[in-house]
Amino acid sequence: MTLTQMRTFLAVAEAGSVRAAADRLVVTASAVSAALSALQDSLRVELVCREGRGLRLTAAGEVYAGYAQRVLGLLDEARLAAAGEADPERGTVRLAAVTSAGEHVLPALLAGFRDRHPEAGVLLEVDNQQRVHTLFARNEVDLAIGSRPEDLGVVVGVRPNELIVVAPAKLLAESGVSPTVPWLGQQTWLLRERGSNTRASTQAVLAELGLTPRTMTVGSNGGVLKSVLLGLGVTLVSRDGVAAELASGELVEVPTGATPLRRPLFLAAHRGRSAATAALLVRCAWEIGTFQRVAPAS
């Protein structure tokens, strides 16, 4: 069993076929098949089976994939941690953040980090809560920013965050009505994609209000905001994300009784000693006030 075989197996698992995995790895299909066969022979268990024109994981393959992802993530972490320990100012930190934090919090944090540590590197992935949790669980990132601390490791920072319902001022002016809960039930609600914590929070608010309105999945926060401004509907969104539009009068906050929702953002690290460069980023987040310091529980 080799690291190349493990990486090849994971590529097959994600791509669903030998040919697609070969394209991803920039090797021949025969090389992928040989590596996969060698891995299965060494483990003495079938990891994949045929399904139509592709492959799918067996039950054993599903279990092995989870371990393989964590092993490779830890090896990558070890490589970067060793380099960072030798020279923290030139090391690299791996960071994952939920979309709302990526759009409204990370720009200031990364700018402050670059000013303080100009030669340090950051590998960044911004996605929904589900993806951030997966990356963190696999040890593919050193630090994570999310809204559900139970999905993460040791919380080292917290940032207040409120979710509010907003509507376009133009729509309200044209209709000549005051926004009420029954009015909200007649509007189209614009949602993030599945796996987004904001989407789950929206569904919880609608259930609490007893509303079953029309919905439209838009995806990104930027797409949702633009759609609201164009008058396509209403949405639940971070107050930080619409501060400028509320101040200019383009958007109006709609009181519901169920909002605002307090959904703090958390900065989390893995248990144990953080890699040196990751620790620099955490300290920067405290110093510039992006996150309030939280002392890890002893």
TrEMBL record:
InterPro entries on file: LysR_HTH_N, LysR_subst-bd, WH-like_DNA-bd_sf, WH_DNA-bd_sf
PROSITE patterns attached to this UniProt entry: HTH_LYSR (PS50931)
Keywords for the protein's UniProt record, in alphabetical order: DNA-binding, Transcription, Transcription regulation
SUPFAM superfamilies per record: Periplasmic binding protein-like II, Winged helix' DNA-binding domain
DNA-binding as UniProt keyword: yes
Signal peptide: none
Bilayer-crossing regions: none
HTH lysR-type domain location: 1-58
Keyword GTP-binding: no
Family recorded in the similarity comment: Belongs to the LysR transcriptional regulatory family.
Protein name: LysR family transcriptional regulator
Highest classification ranks of the organism: Bacteria, Bacillati, Actinomycetota, Actinomycetes, Pseudonocardiales
